[in-house]
Specification:
six-stranded mixed β-sheet; about 45% helix; Rossmann fold; 31 helices; 5 domains; globular; alpha/beta
């Protein structure tokens, strides 16, 4: 069937490279025959025998304790309905990805071709010994209620149907905080729930646990208010049937204190909102279109307290705020279930977190100056790194206090430290930078817009709201590529610097360049003529304030591309050497490599200057730099000139920048392994710290290092980020991918925003 561009992109995302979104990765060495003999035969017999003697040792010798099954039969997938187990698999893989990146929980997705409740339950029971927990997903009501109930009764591992309880937990946390803002008591409020599916019913039940009186809650389905005098009510609906004389959603909304929508878009109008009580709480959670549009609702009443399921409005109700951390806490104490006490603990932890001072990294991620608890912020942001530290311990404690925990945590500080280490497993840095860029998109000039990769990247950053692209090149060629590749860039600005209609601008820019370079061998004519070159023209657009950032380099070598930027824009005041930095996202968190692109054989002073530039750049990402000056030598172990050069650079840094954490010369393995460093060189200023900034002794070492890591590991390299320029200019590497271009545009936008601040 015909597909639009976004559909094709989604399909490409899932199919390119290794199909799907997840893989199984070994956690033990396997390179030698000895390793293999321990991993399998004959060594594997020993843990088998140990588990046979004590079944609980399965948690000691296998991955069971950190392994969750995401299980579905595909009967209620997203808004697509009953599409079957195979078609549900991309969703289940996606859920597995979220478990991993937010809580470091491993997942096997299991798609079961079984709609019968007995058959489904028996299947899950049969495979349950594999897992430490089970997340039921996308199973239609009412079967999902019976399935979850029976599995919880018959198995002794944590089980949760996230469609029900995840939504219930997050909306409950939001409700507690909204009530505080509205200055209302939970046992007095009137609640309207529109939607009678699994999530709606779970929300209602949890609201009752929090204090909402059943007689004060009205639930509506597609036919209207669920009343006790309705015929043919299912058992699950009957418990929410009201005795009040209400028939329609309009009737129910009158004087209501809270509306929860888990139905479909545009079923609530302004009149309904106006009819609600003072300080109405409206959670319109239908996706992608809420029951009432956010702008329409807030324009109706100034006293409204509103949340949606969308990320582009304040107060997003997102299940990812809950399920990864709930399972994390449950697994860590080996809970035999996820009970009401654990769910309520999660509710309260999420609610309380929204009231605490927000870390700057969160403000930066969302492009805000100071998120403060209030009507526009009463639910934590999904990218808040404190969620795992707040919710997981709360759930673990509740499991212990309620008697369902087999393991007991005694050192909570150590547990929090363990959770913090898990945060390094996700590329949070780029996600945070992307969120920040979206909050304040900038005008980015693409000098090489006559190439497919650049246009594709421009399309992506435009669609995602990261940047406003300005395309340089031959208009006919660019438009032809746009049409040929079905790109949506019709409203993008396209400029051909060589075109006759640009003569006046070329002359204007030429005068600016001439003023800068007239005493450096450049004539007035040459200055104007250079503006026919896209790199000069684009750089001068930034210099003249007609664009915010400049991207080039995909089709030309690095020196050719950087020279126009240096002549047109120049370096920051006080900067003697520019440098190139790569961010390498690893399982240990981001590591910053410099210099990787500019300085061939820097002096000791150059190295010191590069280190300072890099430290400032890293600090702008709200990461404390810990700098290792690398060499083949450790702290004077070699008299070779290159080693002595690095040592001298360290001396300069210790003398002139005592506040900077830096040491060397040191070999890379010692820099990256604090235990090894502590053992051999306890005197180092890097003792007890893994370095996160690596300064290389020359260009060869830096360039080779990041490219090798990029190719032979799963690490992603983002860059090169050009350090020391007066304005945002970033030069790409030849042959870089579309993703790499998008990442650099994101960096450029954040760079521009930072400089504005």
């Amino acid at each position: 069937m015909p597909r639009n561009r976004k559909q094709i992109e989604a399909l490409d995302y899932h199919s390119q490279g290794r199909p799907g979104k997840i893989e199984v990765v070994p956690t033990k060495p396997y390179s030698s025959q000895r390793d293999l003999s321990l991993a399998y035969s004959p060594g594997v017999a020993e843990p088998c025998k140990a588990i046979d003697e004590n079944k609980e040792d399965v948690y000691k010798y296998t991955a069971k304790g950190n392994l969750v099954a995401v299980i579905s039969n595909g009967t209620a997938v997203l808004g697509l309905g009953d599409i079957g187990p195979e078609a549900s698999k991309p969703v289940m893989e996606g859920k597995g990805l979220l478990f991993k990146i937010f809580a470091d929980i491993d997942v096997f997705d299991i798609e079961v071709d079984q709609k019968d409740v007995d058959g489904f339950v028996n299947t899950v029971k049969a495979i349950a010994p594999t897992f430490g927990g089970i997340n039921l997903e996308d199973i239609k009501a009412p079967e999902c209620f019976e399935i979850e109930k029976r599995l919880k009764e018959e198995l002794d591992i944590p089980i949760m149907h996230d469609d029900q309880h995840g939504t219930a937990i997050i909306t409950s946390a939001a409700l507690l905080n909204a009530l505080e803002l509205a200055e209302k008591k939970i046992d007095e409020i009137k609640v309207v729930v529109n939607g009678a599916g699994a999530s709606a019913m779970a929300c209602a039940r949890l609201y009752f646990s929090l204090g909402v009186k059943p007689e004060n809650l009205v639930m509506c389905d597609s036919k209207g208010v669920i009343r006790q005098d309705c015929s043919g009510l299912s058992e699950s609906k009957r418990m929410f049937a009201t005795t009040r004389d209400l028939k329609t959603l309009t009737d129910a909304m009158k004087d209501a204190d809270m509306f929860l929508g888990l139905s479909k878009g545009d079923v609530v109008n302004k009149s309904m909102i106006k009819s609600m009580a003072s300080n109405p709480i409206v959670f319109a959670l239908a996706n992608p279109d809420p029951e009432i549009a956010y702008k329409e609702a807030i324009s109706t009443r100034k006293d409204i307290i509103m949340a949606t399921g969308r990320s582009d409005h304040p107060n997003q109700v997102n299940n990812v705020l809950g399920f990864p951390f709930i399972f994390r806490g449950a697994l860590d104490v080996r809970a035999t279930s996820i009970n009401e006490e654990m769910k309520l603990a999660a509710v309260k932890a999420i609610a309380e977190l929204a009231k605490e001072p927000v870390p700057e990294v969160v403000n930066q991620a969302y492009g805000t100056r100071n998120l403060v608890f209030g009507r526009d912020f009463f639910i934590p942001k999904p990218l808040d790194p404190r969620l795992i530290l707040s919710v997981a311990p709360a759930v673990a404690k509740a499991a212990m206090d309620s008697g369902v925990a087999k393991n007991h945590i005694t050192d909570w500080d150590a547990y929090e430290a363990e959770l913090s280490l898990r945060l390094g497993l996700d590329n949070k840095l780029m996600r945070n930078l992307t969120e920040r860029a979206i909050q304040s998109p900038k005008r980015v000039v693409f000098a090489e817009a006559d190439t497919y990769k650049v246009l594709k990247a421009a399309q992506i950053v435009k669609d995602e709201g990261i940047a406003i692209p300005i395309l340089l090149g031959n208009k006919e060629r660019i438009n032809s590529l746009i049409e040929e590749n079905h790109l949506d860039l019709a409203d993008a600005t396209i400029i051909d610097p060589k075109a006759a209609d640009q003569e006046a601008i070329r002359n204007k820019y030429g005068e600016l360049l001439y003023a800068k370079r007239q005493r450096k061998g450049l004539t007035q004519y040459e200055s104007a003529h250079k503006m026919r070159d896209r790199n000069y023209y684009g750089a001068m657009m930034v210099e003249a304030g007609e664009a915010d950032a400049f991207i080039s380099g995909i089709t030309r070598n690095y020196p050719e591309t950087i020279k126009p930027a240096l002549q047109s824009i120049g370096t920051e005041d006080g900067v003697n050497k520019i440098a190139g930095m790569y961010i390498v996202n690893t399982k240990k968190g981001p590591i910053f490599f410099a210099d990787t692109t500019v300085n061939v054989n820097p002096t000791a002073q150059d190295l010191a200057d590069i280190a300072v530039l890099t430290a400032k750049a890293v600090a702008r990402f709200k990461i404390k730099p810990r700098i290792a000056m690398l060499s083949f030598s450790n702290f004077g172990s070699s008299d070779y000139e290159e080693a002595k050069k690095v040592s001298k650079a360290v001396q300069i840094l210790h003398r002139d920048y005592p506040e900077v954490i830096v040491d060397g010369e040191v070999q890379a393995n010692f820099a990256m392994n604090k235990e090894l460093l502590n053992e051999q060189f306890p005197f180092s200023t890097l003792a007890n710290k893994n370095a996160n900034v690596l300064i290389f002794p020359n260009l060869s070492a830096g360039n080779i290092a990041y490219k090798l890591i990029q190719e032979v590991s799963d690490s992603e390299a983002v860059g090169p980020i050009l350090l020391g320029m007066k304005k945002p200019v970033h030069i790409l590497q030849l042959g870089c991918t579309v993703r790499e271009i998008v990442n650099m545009v994101t960096i450029a936008v954040v760079d521009a925003e930072t400089r504005k601040d």
